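Please check the following for our workbook:

***
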Amino acid sequence: MCTRTLADLGARVIKIENPRGGDFARHYDDVVHGLAAHFVWANRGKESITLDLKNPDGMTVLHRLLDTADVFVANLAPGATAALGISPVQLAQRHPDLVVMEIDGYGAGGPLSHKRAYDLLIQAESGVCAVTGSPGAPAKPGPPIADVSSGLYAALTILAMICARRSPGARTGGTAEPAPFTHASVSLFDTAAELMGYQLTYTRHTGVDQQPLGMSSPAVAPYGAYRTSDGETVVLGTTNDREWQRLARDLLDRPDLADDQRYAGNLDRVRLRTELDNEIAQWCASHDAATVQARADAAGIGNSRFRTPREVIAHPHLAARDRWQEISTPAGSVTALLPPPVIAGFAPPMGAVPGLGEHTETVLAAAGFTPSDIAELRDRGAIGTTTPAPSAVTATKG
């Protein structure tokens, strides 16, 4: 996600893959006309080259590419870059102007630093699963939030480092020396712990582990999901006492609840959450979803509709804002969401999803390798052969 974000912002991204199968995410499933959904989602706009980094010739190629690169991003197993001779310190000696970003599982210097890390493992270790789901039934959030958030932090850090290095007035630590930013790291565990900031702060100062509340919030009440008379589910939320008053008086038409001092403050309402949820649930059950949302809007109460992925694909708000766009893949055209940033005057490139090794020859040629050099590298096993693209399939939009 780090490099896809940079590609969406216009960077040229060269993805280095193992000649023997490439990125394992290519093979999770085959639901996108033979391609894996996860790989299609995370790899648009990148150029793929195959390179065996355990082959001396492959390492020579890598260093040739790094001679003209701005940034090197690694996301390998613990200790892998050092074993290959391309740790941040080692790269700084040969490529002093290169910005190096390492994304790892647990960060260096701790008892878990050696462990492999995947999104689910990190979410469990960091407490995210403990505050997700329902009491007695913890769950992993559906989206891979540790992976994605770590990638976004890494991309943000890379851009900040480049800006600081190129700014004549860059300073660090209060000194007058230019900021010597050469490398940084982001760990999935540190990122997930940061996302747990509210829960960790609450528990540190109360000694209480907050329990998961499904689609509710431990911090405020009322705030949750309620079934309507037409079988839909709406989500209603209040974040302060004024909103509670509007919900009780203007939405529920229950001035008695608004005047009841047992519910006067948020802490009171959190303590009596179940009582309030029952009152709201009864009211919602006697109205259809459209009526609930229209009245909530009129009362100034935040609300939304519970949606499934299929409903989101057809969401009228995404369609009205033209948020879907066709992109190319080795299997034909598919539909993808535009990246979240909307930058005036800038159109996201929305580049193609690459086939394995698709750009090996063009990238190496641009780096000065001749056709005979490339053929020799292939003969020596330093690079692989380009994977033939599947028969083209035209995807339907939607």
About this structure: Confidence is low (pLDDT under 50) at residues 389-398. DSSP finds 18 helices and twelve strands in the chain.
